[in-house]
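Extended Data, panel c. Modelled sequence:
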Amino acid sequence: MQETFDTIALDRPSRHVLVVRFNRPEARNAMNTQMGADLKQVWEQMYIEPGDTRCIILTGTGDKAFCAGGDLKQRNNMTDAEWMSQHALFERGMMAMMDCPVPVIAAVNGAAFGGGCEFVCAADFAYASTNARFALTETSLGIMPGAMGTQNLPRAVGIRRAKEIILTATPFNAQEALDWGLVNRVCEPDDLMDAALATAERIAGNGPIAIRQAKKSVSMSTQTSYHTGYLYEIEAYNRMVPTEDRLEGVRAFNEKRKADFKGK
């Protein structure tokens, strides 16, 4: 896959883990049109050919911001057509992230406002630094969340809390994000990436086919009825029965060793 982009930085701290960084620290990692295109390409590449990547960490460059949302300086004086064209790119990128078969952990290293908070909501789960701040500020700008925020946030924090967050546009801190269910863990700033990487490597050490099938099945649980979701789960489960990974997992257990999964 392409490894160099204008607005994001890619890093591979270990064989199966990819770190994707919002890389516009001079703009608090705000998302301009180019970043939207770069992110869309990364997520689409992960969908088509993930290669050896088994877990992704999404974070921001620097210690001030994860992502400050849409770049309002670029958006100033945009025509309606230009705004909608840019937003269509953001929409497709967010859907590509949601469809990514590889688990995505958000490591929130600073401010996650607007679209930045929506990235946190769209990740499979999130860890946050103690200095992280969150907000869906769109209603204070005369717009509303438009990158799955009204869909993903209620699933994370509940509908009444989500309405309060969105309708007031009030920022909240990392501890509140933890208490409300938006993030899974709060870490000291210097420990955030180590914690995210340890979890990513734990995921990457499990069966990659199993991880992808389980991710899809869990995601389906909020999209359909209980019984239909279970039927989907069984279909996902049966996909693993004839795999080499299943045989290796059981063999490794009985031989009291770590399994060496190949994704086959």
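Strands lie at 8-14, 17-22, 55-60, 65-67, 104-108, 111-113, 125-129, 133-135, 172-173, 185-187. This feature is highlighted in the accompanying rendering.
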